[in-house]
Specification:
CATH topology of chain B: Rossmann fold
Helix content of chain A: 55-70%
Number of domains of chain B: 1
Structural class of chain A: mainly alpha
Structural class of chain B: alpha/beta
Oligomer: heterodimer
Order of helices and strands of chain A: HEHHH
Number of strands of chain B: 8
Shape of chain B: globular
Radius of gyration of chain A: 44 Å
Distance between the termini of chain A: 124 Å
Distance between the termini of chain B: 31 Å
CATH superfamily of chain B: Response regulator
Strand order of the largest sheet of chain B: 2-1-3-4-5
Chain lengths: ~130, ~170
């Protein structure tokens, strides 16, 4: 059985898009961009510059407080985090010191235990009679 | 405080009071004049009958009327607000299909929670300094979705377009 060759999908799509575009083009009305807001500002500084100044004037201040879903944090949270870290570091340092001491003791014991015990072969020497 | 920013008025539509207050506080501290707060879409529509605002921050998930439904109502002129008013979607929904849906409904920009002050200001600057054309097509009402400056390589599909002044 021979398979029938169909048109490639790309050509079909092109044909359909032309039809729809011709339909839509007839009733589209485009209005010029609304310049009322720009006119409100007047000539001189742009809104970006004005807002940049406003942001610098309020930088570092709390200008709104919300809950966690809104994504705001507050200063005490970071303070607590730093004190906790310090405490953890101190404890860790103490533990290390203890370990070092025990390691030294072990070394001494091991060296003593490893001394070879030499067994003398042959008959035991008798002490000479006086 | 910048005196020029005081002329701008903003509306925040969110059912969560904390988010509402947070956005309002941030904007007020930056120097924006009036910040109106609404709990849901219906309240926002009623408020828009009395006041005019320059931007709207809108949540997605709200009781009675969702964010996209609210944007649709504003864009189709079912409210007294200017249909071309810039609307920023402020939501926790970060899926790609949701961002595309918001864009197709007519949202100008998309901001995902958790957000920072810089992200909010960046969106506002983008809307004021680089406003986009407004497209009114049978299936779409909203800002032009072609955001890239790069030219379109294919044939011009909007030959019969009429450009109107606002």
């Amino acid at each position: 059985m021979k398979k029938k060759l169909s048109k490639p999908s790309s050509t079909r799509k092109k044909a359909s898009s032309k039809k729809t575009s011709a339909k839509n083009a007839s009733n589209v009305t485009i209005y010029a961009p609304d310049q009322r807001l720009k006119k409100k500002l007047g000539k001189g500084q742009s809104l970006a510059e004005i807002i940049a100044e406003a942001l610098t004037s309020v930088s570092g201040k709390m200008i709104g407080v919300g809950h966690s879903a809104v994504g705001l944090t507050h200063a005490p949270v970071s303070k607590k985090a730093t004190t906790k870290k310090v405490a953890v570091k101190k404890v860790a340092a103490k533990k290390v010191a203890v370990k070092k001491v025990t390691a030294k003791k072990n070394v001494v014991k091991k060296s003593a235990a490893k001394k070879p015990v030499v067994k003398k072969l042959g008959p035991k020497k008798r002490k000479p009679k006086k | 405080m910048e005196p020029k920013l005081k002329e701008f008025s903003i509306m925040v539509v969110d059912d969560d009071n904390l988010v509402q207050k947070l956005v309002a506080d941030v904007l007020k501290n930056l120097g924006f004049g009036k910040v109106y707060r609404a709990d849901d879409g219906n309240t926002a529509i009623r408020m828009l009958e009395r006041v005019t605002v320059d931007f709207i921050f809108c949540d997605w998930r709200m009781p009675e009327m969702t964010g996209p439904e609210f944007i649709k109502k504003v864009r189709t002129g079912q409210t007294r607000a200017n249909p071309m008013i810039p609307i920023i979607m402020l939501t926790g929904n970060a899926e790609q299909h949701q961002v595309i849906e918001a864009r197709n409904v007519g949202a100008n920009d998309y901001l995902i929670k958790p957000f920072t002050v810089r992200q909010i200001t960046k969106r506002i600057i983008e809307l004021v300094d680089h406003p986009r054309e407004f497209v009114a097509a049978p299936k779409y009402l909203g800002p032009c979705r072609r955001r890239k400056v790069a030219g379109h390589k294919g044939t011009e599909r909007r030959k019969n377009r009429k450009i109107k002044g606002v």
